[in-house]
Amino acid sequence: MNVARHNTDPLLNHLLAHLPASEWKALEARAVVVSLRQGELVFSGDEPVDLEYFPLTCIISMIAEMANGDECEYGCIGREGMLGLQVALGAQPLRGQALCQLAGEALRLDGSVLRDLSRSGTAPELQRLLLRYAQATINVLAQSAACNALHSVTERTARWLLMSRDRAGSDEFTLTQEFLAKMLGVRRASVTAIAGKLQDQGIIKYRRSSIHVVDTAGLEATSCECYKLMRDEYALVYA
């Protein structure tokens, strides 16, 4: 992890962009923009953490690990939200690991910054947004659990690609089949077959380490209803 030298706009993050100017100013002076590498471990659940990250151009995956070593993504965070909500709210630690899925920049704050502002009552809109984002996250995790249990790997792959596209802010983003299989908790061969089918249908273009979404409408038609439900859930945070 390095301090970014780019002039990335911190207000690419939706939570930060919806703050009143006075509340953003209170955060800005104590924030730093950092660069995260793809595959970088941001934190592990068995390590103390007192930092918060607001993704700007990166995507962070939350990974659950079973006793036998199997891993699966249970949550994903992009520019729609933040990593470290439990720190800001003074709640119990998150379980699992936070892994950078897509390389890019994030705005980082010490945990004391949001806690102090929340407790002082000087940032009421920040507090309101954090609570609404917490509820949205609960709803999205519930929908994700249902999706993983009830929908096909093809539908889940399409949903995952659509949400990654939204979070990346681009139709093209870096991704390997191995990483996608890990995120979905399936065999790499399954992902290879699905990616090949989507490419044959002209929905995506797939190269060794990148995905280009060519037909967004086609990908949405392939996905289950969960993509729209999850997308709309985060939009409600800012309504």
Explain the layout of strands and helices:
Elements: E1 2-3, H1 14-17, H2 21-28, E2 32-36, E3 41-44, E4 51-55, E5 59-65, E6 71-77, H3 85-89, E7 97-102, E8 104-110, H4 111-120, H5 124-150, H6 153-168, E9 172-174, H7 177-184, H8 188-200, E10 204-207, E11 210-213, H9 216-222, H10 226-237
Antiparallel strand pairs: 1-2, 2-8, 3-7, 4-8, 5-6, 5-7, 9-11, 10-11
Helix pairs in contact: 5-10, 6-9, 7-8
Poorly predicted runs are none
| Outline | globular
CATH architecture annotation of the largest domain: Sandwich
Instruction: Give the distance, in angstroms, between the N- and C-terminal Cα atoms.
Output: 34 Å
Query: What name does CATH use for the topology of the largest domain?
Result: Jelly Rolls
Annotated CATH homologous superfamily of the largest domain: Jelly Rolls
Oligomeric description of these chains: single chain
Total strands: 11
Which value, in Å, is the CA radius of gyration?
18 Å
If helices are DSSP runs of H or I spanning 4 or more residues, what is the number of helices? 10
CATH class of the largest domain: Mainly Beta
Major sheet characteristics: 4 strands, antiparallel
